[in-house]
Amino acid sequence: MTYDLIDEAVVDAPPAEVWDALLAEFRGGARWWVPANTFATTSGAPDQVGGRVAVTVHTKGADKGGLKLRFTARTTAVDPGRRLDIEYVDGVFRGPSSFVLDPVDGGRRTRIGMHFQGRPHGWLKVLAKVADIGGEHSRATSAAFTALGGVLAGERA
């Protein structure tokens, strides 16, 4: 089973601000993708080809117990301010994902999209037969993008 999910949102901030916030989150910022996901750079930089980021999905929220889904993303391509391509190379997911930023309304706002093509690996393959992993992924990503908008609005206020 391979998930092929696209989640998008329009954020009331220019692409440069959204790009910076995305990279900060992957460096461990924990400002807008929590409580569902946390990130930590393990080598290189997330915006450099070969950079690695450890991802933890907290099924009940960060620091709330519950199952933790851990995997590693390696950056495969970067178009600064526009696109970040990654490959899940270790842990409970394998496969590519992309983050794409498109200017909206003359660049005053940004459409951010995530194209997730991960496939469960190891014990998650069994869990994926009985749990809606794809649905949970989309719910968490949509919530994160909403939170991103709120964080960036708060910084400009």
TrEMBL record:
Gene3D superfamilies: 3.30.530.20. SUPFAM superfamilies: Bet v1-like. It holds the Pfam family Polyketide_cyc2. InterPro entries: Polyketide_cyclase/dehydratase, START-like_dom_sf. This is SRPBCC family protein. It comes from Streptomyces solincola.
